[in-house]
Each structure stands twice: as structure tokens, then as C-alpha cells.
Amino acid sequence: MSEVYITKTANFLPNKPVSNDEMENYLGQIGERASKSRRIVLRNNGIKKRYYALDNQGNVTHTNAELAANSIRNLMDNSVAKLKEVDLLTCGTSVPDQLMPSHAVMVHGELPETNAIEVISPSGNCCSGMHGFKYAYMSVKLGDSKMAICSASERLSRSLHADQFELEAKKMGELEANPYIAFEKDFLRWMLSDGAASFLLENKKSETGLSLRIDWIEVYSFANEAETCMYMGTEKLADGTMKSFKDYKMTEVNEQSIMSIKQDTKLLGENIVKLGFKKLEGAIKDKGMSSDDITYFLPHMSSYFFESKIADTLDELDMHIPKERWFSNLETTGNVGSASIFLMVDELMNSGKLKEGDKILLAVPESARFSYVFSLLTVC
After folding, report:
1. CB 55 within 8 A of CB 61
2. Is the separation of the CB atoms in 129 and 341 below 8 Å?
3. Residues 34 and 164 in one domain
């Protein structure tokens, strides 16, 4: 089987960056009141800029599929000839714009320049793009594909807009009367961003610049031992089971904002770091490596709040990685879910910092029901 290389990366970030002070201009105010949790959340997550596929009146500027397709066109230099060479397309996202058709075929539909090709739409949240990445890696390695594109994109801003909560806000009268909506739902409005990025995978190195050899990809789920933590289109009941939007009346779906994104923050704090990073320790040792071999560590974090927790856990596992070897663009790009790790790799690859032989460790935790993907890349 051949080696597999990331030979090029690209991104697409919609519109201009949005500062912390501008956020409510784009997302609106629930109950016509400024959010009480916004400043607290932003102080903790450390994000200063993000991107929205909205204008400052809340109008949509791009669909999720358009974000992904634009990043793919940038990846292929807007060349029709290059797009026609692609024989596999994988597209990950947390929240597609529709329940059906699949997200990936919608992206393919935005790329009429391509041929009739294999298209894969992995389900999931922050790990969905990496699941597509692994599929593309295996396909190229086996010789089933020669030129594969994997993308990850998010368009969450529309789901975070205040008008998605209007009926619930009116029903409860005073927002402060329900701390659940005031924090568990409102908190995520200041955490998530829009954008897309893509990788080109081939069985040979780039002839014009550096490539990233994919050494390994490890995937783990802890759903067998952990409750659901982050969810949308379903409601978590007192016993921890989930009730689908399909089992509510449409009036209840609207009044209880069942289609809003929610997160059990207590469960998040207790599990997101400790569960998966033990597996990372095992993966590193199984490959005959140590943390000293890592040149750059790229952890996907929803918030800088978790930076010290990850560092402490790595130290406890005897996997210390000095902070000067960490790389993140969370502060300037925001938390773009499944696209975050793609955007980090893209920025690092085009930073001028890399040299042959550098080893890049990717770590992607997903809080939905605690899944993790780890991958090692070597610059060549």
C-alpha cells in the first residue's frame, strides 16, 4: 500500500471577522435584552474574533454547502481541470442545512465542474471532518482513489440567532426565570463560529512545496460509558435518555426550542479531557514514540479554559509537551467545530514555520457523546 500525503490545504471564512463587542449585532438579543452570560463566557473562552455566514442584520450570506465548496475551489485554485481530476469527496459537518439529502451531496452539487464521483458524508460533530479524513486516507492508501478531497465546514450562526428563541422567551416571560435557557443554551451562542477548510490527499508528495505524510489516525468513542453531553433536535430527560424532536408536537418543538444546540456543561467538564487523552497515551506508546518526538501539538479546544486541563492531563500521563510547541488559532478564528482542526493545519502549513521532518500531532475531542480522533503527520 502506498503512503498518503496531504499535498495542499485551503480555507474559506465568510465575510469579515466579528469582534466580541459586535456579536449581538449579528446574533441578536433574546427577549430584547443583552445577554448576561456573554461577557463571562467570552472571558473564559479567550476568543476575540470569529466569522459568521450572516450580515449584521441576521441575513444569511452562505449555506453550509457553499462554505465547503468555496474552500474546495480555493484548494484547487478555481481550476476546472483540477476539479475534474478528483475521484473522492468527503464532507464533515456538525449540523447540515437539511436532514436529507446528505451534506456531502449538497456540497458536490455546488461543484458542477467535477465528475460523477464517490461522495461520503460522515455523521458526527467535531470529529466528523476527521472521520471523512480517515476514509479518504484509507481509500488513497488502498489505491481506490488517486486524488481525494476531504472538507469540514460549519454554519451554526443561524441556529444561534435570537429569533430561534423568540417563542420560548415569550412563553417564560422573564429570561432570568429560567436559568437553563439563560446559560445552558445561551452559553453556546458565544462559543461557535462559521467557516470551512479542505485537504487534498494524494499518493505522492507535492512537486511544488511541502507535504504532510499521514502516519496514522486513531478514532475512539466512549458512548458505551458516557451520557449524551451536546445535542440538537432532541431533549435530554431526567434519566439521561434522549427524546427526539420527532416525538414532540410541532408546537412543543418551537416553544421549547428543541432544535437549539444545548450542552450539559457539568458533564463536559468532568469528561472531555480525562476520557480521551488516556487513549492518546496508548496510541503514542504503541507507535514506539514519546511526546518528545512531537514538534507541533494541535489540540482542538472549544475554549482556552481547557488548555491548562489538557496540559495537566498530559503531564499526569508523562506526556509533557511544552507550550511553545502548541499551535492554535482559536483566538482569531473561533471555535468552528469540525472545521477547527482543518483550519489549524491550513494555517500552520502556510505559516512558513514548517521544515522537513517536523511531526504534527492532531487531537480532536468531541463532546456530543465523547468521541476522539488523534492523528500524526510528518512534514516531507
Report:
1. yes
2. yes
3. yes
- State whether 149 and 277 are in the same domain: no
Omega within 30 of 0 (cis) for the link into 101: yes
Our measurement of the distance from residue 7's CA atom to the centroid of its chain's CA atoms, rounded to an integer in Å, reads 21
Tally the residues of the chain.
380
Q: Return the closest-CA partner of residue 241 out of 259, 228, 256, 232.
A: 228
Model confidence, pTM: 0.95
Q: Which residue has the cell 508523562?
A: 318
Which of these, 290, 296, 371, lies nearest to 328 by C-alpha position?
296
Annotate 216-260 with three-state secondary structure. EEEEEECCCCCCCCEECCEEECCCCCEEEHHHCCHHHHHHCCCCC
- Angle, CA of 275, 183 and 130, to the nearest 5°: 40
Are residues 118 and 90 part of one domain? Answer: yes
Three cell numbers, residue 131? 472521520
- Per-residue pLDDT of 208-223, as tens digits, reads 999 999 999 999 999 9
How many domains does the structure of the chain reveal? 3
Asked if 124 and 337 touch (Cβ cutoff 8 Å), the reply is: no
- Closest by CA to 6, choosing from 184, 213, 175, is 213
